[in-house]
Amino acid sequence: MANVNAKRGVIGILTGGGDVPGLNPAIRGITLRALREGYQVIGIRHGWAGLVDMVRENDYDNSDNFFLLDEEIVDRSGRTGGTFLHSSRTNPGRVTRASVPTHLSDKFTADTNDLTSEVLKNLAWLGIDTLIPIGGDDTLGYGVRLHKEGFKVIGIPKTMDNDVPGTDYCIGFSTCVTRTIQMVNSLRTSAGSHERLMVLEVFGRYAGFTAMLPTMAGAANRCVIPEYKFNIEHLTELLVADRRKNPNRYAIVLVSEGATFDGSAMVFEREATDAFGHKKLGGIGDIVADQVKEISAKFNNGKKIDVITQKLGYLVRCGDPDAIDSIAPMAYGNLALDLLLKNISGRLVALNNGHYDNIPLETVAATKKVVNVKEQYNTDRLRPQYASFEMRPLFLI
């Protein structure tokens, strides 16, 4: 590619999937260290989409797909939330015919197309030696694909759900838990004023950590999670009893978006799937709220109890990162450079047992990280449980 004359090499960075606070500090950490070590850094826009939509012509305007990063750019954005590289849920291994870029439409005509060959050509054209994707198991899963194709990849785990296997911590989780606790504590004033039950839906497709930790911290009385199909009548009985014992006459339950009733399936906002095969979740909180209100009369002397329901959603993933999501991403970025300088790739930086580390990148595709119901969740009380906290990691999971 024209105008890229690296002294030592070229590093590419991209962010994929949902935005979380902490992405920009990670980009900053990588870039500042890389520049000091003599590398040039290219920011890929819109996740994997930037490497799909790129046109390999020097006079083509690719500014919407990539740009060079410098200290001024990353310093300006490094303290903020979201990702200034922007994001997408593009999967280059599964691109629908309608989503194939115009300049490739004659070459890729199937209903679903694998554009990995073009991604590799685009990386070579940019002169990128090592790619650092920051994302969850979907984004990192495609990173595994590139690694298997022989390209140098070092992954950084990011997801509010904290469910990337092999690491105790994923960027975004701490801020998510912090915001959830803050918002629940704000909303409880309304619940108490009207003596109501409150049902709050939080993120968590397959893992219930974002509901578990705030509940353990005292933000809610109960939580229901994807790993355990709950009985709505039992939940209602518990909440009515919690309300009765509370001097302010209210009770709160956190509902993971992927939670399901006995004998039912996940609730989806729509049937269409993204490039990784996921349907848009949403609506379980409203359903739980409606049913809890109807059933509450059975445990409240025949009188229904009104319910406040709220979907916290993007409110917990927007805004600036908290302290942990400012520090850990910076460390992750430097860990990635440590590996690169040792000419090591195919690794995922991680935090385990209180120490920064790295593990094989393939780990993200080899297993799932979910709540251990038997050890960590009381299915009778519908809330977290631990026999002992000794030697547990910071966030207990």
Fraction of helical residues: 25-40%
The percentage of residues in β strands lies in 15-25%
State the secondary-structure class: alpha/beta
N- to C-terminal distance: 45 Å
Q: Helix segment count?
A: 12
Order of helices and strands: EHEHEHEEHEHEHEHEHEEEHEHEEHHEE
Shape: elongated
Number of strands: 17
Q: Gyration radius, to the nearest Å?
A: 23 Å
Characterize the main sheet: 7 strands, mixed
Descriptive labels:
397 residues; alpha/beta; seven-stranded mixed β-sheet; four-stranded parallel β-sheet; 12 helices; 33% helix
Question: What does this protein look like?
Answer:
The protein is an alpha/beta fold. 33% of the residues lie in helices and 19% in strands. Helix 1 packs antiparallel against helix 3 (71-77) and helix 8 packs across helix 9 (284-296). The radius of gyration is 23 Å and the shape is elongated. The mean pLDDT is 93.
Question: Which helices and strands appear, and what pairs or packs with what?
Answer:
Blueprint lengths: L9 E6 L7 H14 L3 E5 L4 H5 L12 E3 L2 H7 L17 E2 L15 E2 L2 H11 L3 E6 L1 H12 L3 E6 L15 H21 L3 E6 L6 H8 L5 E3 L7 H14 L5 E6 L11 E6 L5 E3 L2 H13 L10 E5 L12 H18 L5 E6 L2 E6 L2 H4 L6 H4 E2 L4 E2 L13
Parallel strand pairs: 1-2, 1-6, 6-7, 7-14, 8-10, 8-13, 9-10
Antiparallel strand pairs: 2-3, 4-5, 11-12, 14-15, 16-17
Helix pairs in contact: 1-3, 1-10, 6-7, 8-9
Q: How would you summarize what this structure contains?
A:
The protein is α/β, with parallel strands linked by helices and 397 residues long.
